[in-house]
Amino acid sequence: MLFKNLTCSFLLLITLTSFISPGYPNASSQIKKWVISENSNLRVNGSTNINTFICEIPSYDQIDTITVNKSNKDVLLSGTINLNVKSFDCHNVIMTHDLRKTLKQDQYPVLHISFLTLNKLPDLTAKAEPVTGWVFIEIAGVRKRFEVNYQISQDNQKIIHLLGSRDVNFSDFNLIPPRKLGGMIKTNDKLSVDFHLKMKSMD
User: What is the pTM of this model?
Assistant: First the structure.
């Protein structure tokens, strides 16, 4: 009787394991790589008590990769864009100097955006698709986690356009907004960060 039970258990184990391919990833997983092109850009929109301003990094001077890993319902990202603070241009010499100084350019010359997740894998069609995701933004040595709203599309040249937007505050990163003329001109705490990544899939 014991031998019969052992035999049945052994046959059951063989039957179950025959459906598993050892050493291979889950068949439902998808891994893609998106290469960020140099003509990507980032823009910061801000305001003072008397006017508004736009500061931008008009082009990305590196080539980086975002890895997209979809497994079951999760879409995990890995990859970071590293932006030189000295590349910010506010189209005004004084404003540009003040922003770079506020962001502590000499001590922390690079701003980092690390991609973490998407709420779904986009279809990548010509029509922009709304997607949300989480990122880490690191400014002046302080890193914070934010949810970002995206619009994702793909054009006829197979260029993937990832447009992201998020409001942040200087105070999120322990920074004090610039002030001028003895405090008469005050920069508001809130900034709107918009970026446009242009990418090619390596698939």
Answer: 0.81
